[in-house]
């Protein structure tokens, strides 16, 4: 099968995000200038650079109470900071609860019963028991082609790692099993790993 996105795919559901899979989930925490906290998951998320460490996530829809975007991007525009929390399999249900199109004044930490902690380098909440959290300072917001598509880039200014996830000096993803996003309503979980050496490496 071949299709041009501009012509449509002719399938019952859009296959695009099932093709680009699995995707890590950035559980983005923000605080508005009015002090309201927000927490929402984004699967258009990844690390993009080592030095300095940088990450990005993309928001692709709107809410009636946020104009051209959603709560996360709106609050980052106001404050210039955000925190990326890594989602473990054990947190799948509360993560999903935080994904609803709740009113902008709703605190998803409270809504889903998620313990909150303060960041160290930025004025922002974080998921207290997340396997890891990246504290980020906004570097740029790019408006992408299409309505309401925004890519948010941030420089990592602080890194939290849960102590039980450190094994022999390494961050061990199998100690918490990261949740990943697939297509449609499907998710997966990382339960095994293997290593490959690059050509020429000893």
Automatic annotation (TrEMBL):
Gene3D superfamilies: Electron Transport, Fmn-binding Protein, Chain A (2.30.110.10)
TM helices/strands, residue ranges: none
Domain Flavin reductase like per the UniProt entry, residue ranges: 18-173
InterPro entries (alphabetical): Flavin_Rdtase-like_dom, Split_barrel_FMN-bd
Pfam families in alphabetical order: Flavin_Reduct
GO MF annotation, one: oxidoreductase activity, acting on the CH-NH group of donors, NAD or NADP as acceptor
Domain of life: Bacteria
Protein name per Swiss-Prot or TrEMBL: NADH-FMN oxidoreductase RutF, flavin reductase (DIM6/NTAB) family
Species for this entry: Marivita hallyeonensis
């Amino acid at each position: 099968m071949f299709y041009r996105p501009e012509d449509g795919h002719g399938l019952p559901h859009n296959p695009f995000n099932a093709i680009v899979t699995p995707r890590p989930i950035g559980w983005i925490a923000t605080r508005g200038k009015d002090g309201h906290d927000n927490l929402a998951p984004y699967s258009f998320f990844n690390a993009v650079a080592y030095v300095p460490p940088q990450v990005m996530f993309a928001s692709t829809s709107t809410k009636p109470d946020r104009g051209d975007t959603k709560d996360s991007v709106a609050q980052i525009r106001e404050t210039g900071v955000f925190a990326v929390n890594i989602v473990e399999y054990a947190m799948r249900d509360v993560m999903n609860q935080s994904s609803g199109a709740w009113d902008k004044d709703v605190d998803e930490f409270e809504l889903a019963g998620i313990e909150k902690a303060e960041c160290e380098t930025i004025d922002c909440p974080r998921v207290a028991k997340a396997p890891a959290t990246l504290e980020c300072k906004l570097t740029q917001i790019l408006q992408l082609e299409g309505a309401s598509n925004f890519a948010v880039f941030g420089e990592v200014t602080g890194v939290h790692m849960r102590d039980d996830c450190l094994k022999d000096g390494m961050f061990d993803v199998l100690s918490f099993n990261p949740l990943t996003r697939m297509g449609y309503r499907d998710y997966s979980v990382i339960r095994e790993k293997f290593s490959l050496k690059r050509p020429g490496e000893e």
